[in-house]
Each structure stands twice: as structure tokens, then as C-alpha cells.
Amino acid sequence: MPEKTAAERFDETAHNYSTSSHHVGGRSLERMLEIGAPTPEMLVLDVAAGAGHTSAAFAPRVKRVVAYDPAPNMLAETEKLLGARGLNNVDLRRGLAEQITFEDETFDLVVSRLAPHHFENIERALREMARVAKRGGKVLVSDLAGFEDPELDEFNHSLELLHDPTHVGSYTPERWRGIFEQAGLEVCHDEQFHEPPKGLLVSEWCRVAKTPGERVLEIMRRCLEAPTKVRHALGIAQEGDDLRIRARRIELMGGIKK
Distance of CA 174 to CAs 110, 178, 201, Å? Predict the structure, then answer.
């Protein structure tokens, strides 16, 4: 059978993402709120909004948010979250990042968190995000970061594909800056960090994505047999019968030239 599309997989795993600790909050979301500097008059678009945690974080601080995602069940989880928090200024819209169904220069701020590594065409998606941002507006992305070292990057990519075959790529900071620039965005903020600092438990990482058991075992095997350089760079560490892996994050913000 062919692999499922990202939207189909996320329809199946939507509830898991609604309760996943590293999607619910953490430094990446806190920094997005600080860097994005939301104000009460802003219109915000959350691209590939997932279970709605980013939309719900911005909503109390801005005029209106649009949670935009291709997976109906993700939007349903977003609706539940908004209801639980009593938020009524978020609109739900279904669609792909590469084909954003809004007019040019609609939003003050366009954001996307922990999703771009699934976009089939990252360059097209960023061009679309830039297109719908107002002149003087911003595009803010928080996502996985790749490694400059080809050996490390290839090993990390192989684990990501085992974890979720809809993973397309974790891009290096240099590649991300190039993608922003090609989209007509002038990078005004760029930072990297690990989230969570101690790393993710492989069991929890795979539970959220419903990774099949045989793939979980293969991830564990590869990690345990990895060269010392790889184990050190990825922070691979035994924790009982489980393993932890450090996840690199990058946050970039680009401005639309006036």
C-alpha cells in the first residue's frame, strides 16, 4: 500500500498531538510569542495549525487568528481547545500551506510551528506565507533544524522517516535563510536551541505519531549502534528501557519589505 499523505496521517493522530507535551507548550511557543510581539489590532494566520496550540496562544493577544490546516480532525481538535479556553476569535479554515486560500497582503503576522518539515514544497509554502502577509508584516517559523555535517544530517533524517514517513526535511539554518530570502523575506531574527533541553523519550515521540512497533525498534537499534559522534550530537542517552534524543529547533522571522 502507498504511504498515507500528511493530512491523512494527521487525521489519524490528531488527538495525540492535542495532548503531546512538546506541542502543547515549551520554549518554542514562548519564544514565538516574544519574537512575534502580538498586539491587539493584529490579524494572524497559523499555517498547518495542527491541534491549535499556537493559535490558542496568540488568540488572547490579537484581534483575530485563522487556524489553517489540511487535516479535518486537527481542526476539530483545535475547535475543542478553543472551546475549553473560551476563545471565540479564531476561525478554522482547511487548506494546504502551498496553496493558501487568502488574498495577498491579508495578515499582519503569519506563523507556523513544528509543521514545515512536512511541507511537500517548502519554497512554495514560504512564498505563499509571504504573499498573504501585509507590507511591513512578518512571517515567523519555528521548526526542526537540520545538521550542517552531512553524516549527522543523514542519520537524523533516517530516524525522522522511520518515525513518520511524511517527514520531508529538517533544514539547516543556512538553508532556512535561503528559503526566506527566496520568498522575499528579510530575516530579522534567527535562533537555535534544543527542545526539550533533556531530549525527547523515543517511546513518547513515537506514541504521538503512532509509529509502528517494528519502526520503533529500528529507531532504537540505530541509535544504540550509532557512532560516538552521532550519539553525542543527537544527545542519545539510555533511560531505563527507553532512549532520549535531543531535538534541534530553529526559529526565524522575516519581514516583508515595504
Answer: 21, 6, 28
